[in-house]
Amino acid sequence: MKLPKMYKCLLATALLGSFTAYPELSHAASSEKEIINDQEANFKGLLGYYFNDKELKETALISNSESGDLFADNDQIDDMLPDELKQFQSAMWRGFIKVEKSGEYTFSTSDNDHTMLWIDDHQVIDHSSATQKIELEKGKLYKIKITYQPESSSANEFGLQLNWITPQGREEIIPEGNLLLPDIKNQPENESSRKKRSISDSDDGVEDSDGDGIPDSLEIEGYTLDVKNKKLILMPWIEKVHGKKRTKSGAPLTKYTSSPMKWSTASDPYSDFAKVSGMIDKKVKVKHPLIAAYPNLQVHMDKFIISKNRNETLENGGNTSSSISGSTSTSNTHSTEASVGAEVHASLFNFGGSVSTNFSDSNSQTATIDRSSSESLGRNWSKSLGLNAGEAAYFNANIRYVNNGTAPIYEAAPTTSLVLGKNDTIATIKAKENHLANVVLPDRFYPDKDQAAISLQTKDDFGSSPITINKDQLNILEQTRQMRLETDQVSGYVGVIDPKTKLIVVDKDKQWSHIIPQIEETTARLILKTPDNSELERRVAAVDPDDYTEQTKPDVTLGEALQLAFGFEDKQGKLSYNNTSIDDFRLVFDEETAENIEKQLEDMETKNIYNVQLHARMNILISPKKDESGVHEGLSSWEIDGEDNYYKYDVLQTGWQTINGKKYYFNENGTLVPNKVIEDGTYQINTALKNTSLVDWNRSDNNITVWETNDGSNQKWKLKYDDSQQAYVIRSVENNDKIMAWNAYQNSTNVFATAFEGKPEHFWIPELLGNDFYILKNKKDPTKVLDVDGSGTSNGSNIQVLDYKGTDNQKWKLEQVEAN
Predict the structure, then answer these.
(1) Residue 290 DSSP class
(2) H or E stretch at 279
(3) What is the pTM of this model?
(4) How does the average pLDDT of the chain come out, rounded?
(5) DSSP code per residue over 442-470
(6) Which site in 251, 519, 652, 787 is 20 to 30 Å from 30, CA atoms measured?
(7) 7-10 long-range contacts, Cβ below 8 Å, gap at least 24?
(8) Is the dihedral of CA 510, 263, 285, 488 positive or negative?
(9) What is the enclosing helix (H) or strand (E) of 580?
(10) Residue among 652, 649, 622 at smallest CA distance from 637
(11) pLDDT value at 533 more than 80
(12) Nearest C-alpha neighbor of 487 from the set 333, 285, 305
């Protein structure tokens, strides 16, 4: 009977449940591979191909055999193959063999007359009962290949029994532990396998152009995985069978497709076969052949110390008379760099798609000095240090590495630049011996958060070239409270598994800095900003219309990519993420991606952005819509000198603008007005301690206290912004001659009502904390904020200024009201 095409290429791969990948082996111990840590693995058995024809062409099944018992039991594959494919007529096994004792071995099978067997390049059985002896050495791996072509097939089982006679004269079936799975494609070369033509080069009968262990037809038409009798099963996708099937956890089976011409479709260091079967480092987070596994190492700064005295930068303490220090928080720079500079033409599609003219490809982080830390430092840092023009202070950054990628990186050594403003680089440092990380796992920090950070204070291992910062740079840092950490490049290695020791080892032939550029060139980059404000980055294998090999990859639409990369679900034709509709997200593209998508949409009869095809080098940000006013918003060109501008639909905006939930004011020239965060008007000022208690002017003694609301004019205040002071005057509605001020006299902290004289202590700077609450900083010393003494809520509780602590007695809600 002539079988349908799909059955001719039918494949089911049975593997043990906890396989991991083979490294590029050397029979002798290699100094280029360093043991890192244990990983549970099982490498027993040869990989057997069973065919429906005698010429070893029509592959029906692939299965592993742990010992010399090479029979395929039809009971184990009863519901995996149609009956017509269970009639095997030939077979081939390949892998590695090792011995426990050196000496001369003789091999035989249960049917030598129909068998050929090679050990490395030595044929020891050739369709004859006569066999050749071969010398094998303990501690080495030898390639083994067997072909079997009997005269007739069996209905119940098919295969061979593989035996040996040991140097001690014992004849037995080769036991478990002596046979190992092959290393797919990357076969080892060593002193026992260096002939020009080896058995690995001979025709296996399987059309596998890329050598990844999966036949070409299967990679094109689709395959899936299941578990049967504790074994991992890889088989062709048959819709009527697998479309209804569920795993033990209740999840549907996954249909995989991959490139028949690429060993790794996503260009990462793991073959398609290894990823889907689990034959890789178990710390790799992604196992789909279309999702790239790679580390994304970034550098975060926890704290900095600056001092004129170099010894004091070595300390991890607080401020001294000649040093300053502050804690920082680090965020992804590209979140703001991917802000919108232009809008995709609305006439083309209405999908909330926007274009960024500066979508960042850089691995850049922004360290921001925490508010409480910044305010505790006081004003004029260079003066505090006694730093004069032309002098330099010493800089110590306390840093950690974080891996936001999907694969571990071993012996990680980032090169980091510390940058102020736009491009003022303080120092560029490549991690030396004392800054190397043995391993940084995905979603993990090095050192861990519960350990002390790394001290980065010199440009070399010997301490002869300290990191310094001059007076101008210090002033910039004081003004902006920000420093950019650019991870220019990262050195580090791939972890692979040694089948002899079952340990993760560092493979010095697989350097991530060589691999990641190939991944970036052949994938589309997707960044998901989730509703809880976390960020995920994935790279999806995508076709390249200008590269013939890359065109052999499966076509993937944007909608399919969102499901593969982030777990979006298709609910009745509408995508959603954790029950949040795709309609509640916006899409931001770089300019080239936008042009590509526009062209695809023009050619579509039914225009749907989620049906456009991903292409290599696309950049797409998927971000929640905050509100309608913020959908197309973002600040561009943040400058340290205050010349900040904001564009919407390519138009320079002026006046009040709401951006990412906060209000900003831009003057008639489109320049951001510093500290102007609330409109001039009449307000009641409520304490966060009790929503019915307000800031109250006691007319009898001019003291300012909290008091239960009574709608009195002495509880209402006019806020007016003063451009010259970049701060607000808070004036009593009841008496226009009285303003709220800090009584900064003889170390007093009291707040009172007094006549306006234009003193710094007569001005206030509101700063939004979130949830509509503000702190009110005093202009004279912004480290001092409006504070309810002792967190009192009873009528008459005194109001003062105190150092910022972040407690509720320092938080205020400004509610606009009508003046009496």
Answers:
(1) T
(2) none
(3) 0.68
(4) 81
(5) TT-EES-TTSPPEEE-BSSTTSSSB-EEE
(6) 519
(7) 7/82, 7/84, 7/85, 8/52, 8/58, 8/217, 9/58, 9/59, 9/215, 9/217, 9/218, 9/221, 9/236, 10/59, 10/60, 10/61, 10/81, 10/85, 10/235, 10/236
(8) positive
(9) strand 580-581
(10) 652
(11) no
(12) 333
* Ordered structural domains, the chain, with CATH: 5-17+40-246 (3.90.182.10), 297-337+359-512 (2.60.120.240), 516-629 (3.10.20.110), 681-816 (2.80.10.50)
Q: Which is more confidently placed, 197 or 99?
A: 99
Cβ–Cβ < 8 Å for 222, 256 = yes
Distance CA 456, CA 56 (A): 61
**Pairwise pLDDT comparison (697 vs 532), residue with the higher score:** 697
Kindly state the tokens that stand for 554.
């499966």
In whole angstroms, give the CA distance from residue 27 to residue 566: 41
β-strand partners of 51: 59, 90
Task: Considering only CA atoms, give the Rg of the chain.
Answer: 35
User: Cβ distance 811 to 769 under 8 Å?
Assistant: yes
Query: Per residue in 414-441, pLDDT tens?
Result: 999 998 877 789 999 999 888 999 999 9
Q: Please identify which residue in the block is written with the tokens 């691995």.
A: 363
Residue 95 CB partners (closer than 8 Å, separation 6+): 45, 46, 47, 143, 144, 179, 180, 181, 182
Least confident of 110-119, 143-152, 451-460: 451-460
- CA–CA separation, 435 and 65 (whole Å): 45
CA proximity to 412, closest of 505, 297, 300, 325: 297
| Calpha distance 704→692 (Å, rounded) | 16
Per-residue burial over 360-374, b = 16 or more CB atoms within 10 Å of its CB, e = otherwise: beebbbbbbbebebb
SS3 assignment, position 266: coil
DSSP letter at 667 equals -
pLDDT tens for each residue of 352-364: 577 766 666 556 7
Average pLDDT for 564-580 = 92
Q: Is the pLDDT reported for residue 193 higher than 60?
A: no
pLDDT computed for residue 14 by the predictor: 33
The answer to whether 297 and 492 are in contact (CB under 8 A) is yes
Give whole-number Cα distances, 496 to 346, 410, 414, 683, in Å.
49, 10, 21, 65
How far apart CA 305 and CA 316 sit, in angstroms, is 8
Rounded percentage of the chain residues whose pLDDT exceeds 90:
46
